[in-house]
Design brief:
homodimer, alpha/beta, Alkaline Phosphatase, subunit A, globular
């Protein structure tokens, strides 16, 4: 069979536990979702531990696994993916920080950790810092995220992530002088402290802050940094699996995950990462992308949001909106596509947090060994033909079903 | 959700194979056990390979796995757990031996390897040896077990387990001079040989042996040692999983397993480790312990005894007595407890030995994804919502269900 295409649908936080409010059913068991169930009934189903049984995954470690990377071997923290998410083209060895635009007085005392939750002008402020060259040949890459949030990447020889935060984590305290936490952290600490000085020098009289002063708003004249992490050495997914891959996601962290593994990130109008996201637009964008890409990964964040907020009925409705997305795919998918639908982890409504409960997974496409599972939910999937697999197993299975696996042995 | 408690019930050797005498059913399939089945019907079920598929576990390696330790990485032999089981407070790096109180003549020839299966006075004899200081700063810790059985621990710098046995393993032979089997065994061999000399010197005229001579019984004037093993470096379970743990067991080896991982061992009147054990007393002790401990592990040895003895009907009756224990738990358990019931391995009646057959496992408690399994047995469990897991997966799953897991990633 010729090589086919892979569509990987990741419904964030979709898995759940029985909920008293839903008569001890899960949201997936409760929702009306004829199209999702159609894919289950015409596919092969199973349960999947995103990392391993009993391990409660983050979205980042789980997406790494679903993209074919052993997160227990390569994960170095969330910072590098956040940086990639705001558009910094991170490279192996870069040191990434999460940051806040903040307000300090002339004595470097923090008077507002979020600079009055600044919204406008953040990209102009960021542009004034991006590209700075610091002592020791260290290059600054800096981007604003949503509101006061930002990401900093330091690039240069001899840098390490083993440094303290410049963010004092409380107002009234002065911006912290950064120190090494291990012997190889000296150059990074020196660079971060130089960045802090440059920040104030460049931002204090920046036109955006002049305007803010006129409007009686606190200036965004400092960047407070936290959570240093080194960008891991991830072989680009295209090279690793000999394919052309694209990601579609609304939220920054997941866009960052996609970029960090070398996927093209496709922007979809209306894909917000929130409950109001346009899922059908994502489905159409995925169908369009499958014309030119071999692997298209789509993240839908909404079920996770419902889980974290403890909203059982909203999670049910979100699944019903996902079903409309599946209707679009059912019509639009050609026989050249192998589809997988799953979650990156469970976010049980009763917990308002992630859990280690395995998630349902279905695979649909020509050649799949269709089992007798009729519905896509946590209980039905346990009887499916896939059995209980791990997140790291999924992409290899899809590569094989799509005629893209390599023989081990002769 | 708040942190909850964990009750881990380990029915030793419970798993079995179809038995012709039972119309080709297993003892679990044959037994009347409405309460055990109630837990299965209201819980989630599966099969568990204590170590891995096809690996025939010992009780020690399996309990290690169920307690969350990778026995293939940390197991060094049974000796350290036997020593802990008779009450020696073993420490990492100690060298433990299993021993027999025995009778030798003046030429050190073994005339009775079990000193006439001595029962009385063994603890007095042991006390005379416990605390000895040997050449080279080696300290002796010595305790009697049941009948002629005993355990020796050597504690000191530079000791290794790589030595031969002093037990010649046959009567008529002289007590063996212990030699190193690897280059680092010299100090240990020297210490064991010194212990052997001290043994005879101290025990030959001990009042217990004077009494035995008067009664025409062979003196227990020697300790024959075998199976040297080093106490592994096991991070205490309390630190490892941030909880307070207790174990309830009738037999010494399992008490030793519990102690070796840092559990408190609770003594229960009537818990013998034999077929006559008072299982309801164990259930009540567990319920009481759950008021102050986060994790309570209970071992019931009786099914394993039936398996080793090849007694099919006795194993059925033992399961029916286990069911009375489950009735007690069903009434007494509060919603703050997550319960797991399983076995450490199968001990098929037809084999009279352990086998690698996976064992049934059920998990019951708030939040569990109840499946449609109605009975607790080896065949029904295979269709459950847990699928097929490993022993090392179980505690992480229980920690997550009880709100005690930590997130991997963000």
């Amino acid at each position: 069979m010729d090589r086919r295409k892979i569509l990987l649908l990741i419904f964030d936080g979709l898995g759940d536990r029985p909920i008293p409010e839903l008569a001890r059913q899960t949201p997936l068991q409760t929702a009306r979702k004829e199209h999702l169930d159609w894919f289950a009934a015409n596919g092969v189903n199973g349960l999947m531990d995103p990392i391993a049984p009993g391990v409660k995954p983050g979205s980042d470690t789980s997406h790494l696994a679903l993209f074919g990377y052993d997160s227990r071997a390569v994960y170095t923290g969330r910072g590098p993916f956040e940086a990639a998410g705001v558009g910094i083209p991170v490279r192996r060895g870069d040191i990434a920080f999460r940051g806040n635009l903040a307000t300090v007085d002339s004595k470097m005392r923090v008077t507002d950790r979020r600079a009055g939750r600044i919204k406008d002008g953040t990209h102009d402020l960021a542009a004034a810092l991006d590209g700075l060259q610091l002592d020791g040949g260290v290059r600054v890459l800096f981007r604003a995220g949503t509101e006061h949030r930002a990401a900093l990447v330091l690039r240069g020889a001899g840098l390490s992530p083993h440094v303290t935060d410049s963010d004092p984590h409380e107002e009234g305290a002065v911006v912290a002088s950064v120190a090494a936490t291990e012997s190889n952290g000296g150059a990074t600490a020196h660079a971060v402290n130089a960045f802090t000085r440059e920040c104030f020098r460049i931002l204090k009289d920046h036109p955006v802050n002049m305007e803010r002063a006129k409007a009686g708003l606190p200036p965004a004249n400092m960047v407070l940094l936290r959570g240093a992490g080194i960008v891991p050495d991830l072989e680009p997914i295209g090279e690793r699996f000999h394919l052309k891959a694209a990601g579609i996601a609304g939220v920054g962290l997941i866009k960052g995950m996609c970029r960090a593994v070398g996927m093209d990130v496709l922007e979809v109008a209306g894909a917000t990462g929130g409950l109001d996201t346009d899922m059908v637009a994502k489905a159409n964008a995925a169908l369009e992308a499958l014309k030119t890409y071999d692997l298209v990964a789509v993240n839908v964040k909404a079920p996770d949001v419902c889980g974290h907020d403890g909203l059982a009925n909203e999670k049910v409705r979100t699944i019903e909106r996902i079903d409309a997305m599946m209707a679009t795919l059912k019509i639009g998918l050609g026989p050249e596509v192998v589809l997988a639908a799953t979650a990156d982890h469970s976010t049980p409504v009763m917990l308002k947090d992630h859990s280690a409960d395995p998630v349902p997974v279905l695979i649909f496409g020509e050649g799949v060994r269709v089992d007798d599972v009729q519905k896509f939910d946590e209980i039905s999937a346990a009887k499916g033909g896939l059995g209980r697999i791990r997140g790291l197993d999924l992409l290899p299975i899809l590569l094989d079903l799509s005629g893209r696996s390599e023989k081990f042995g002769a």
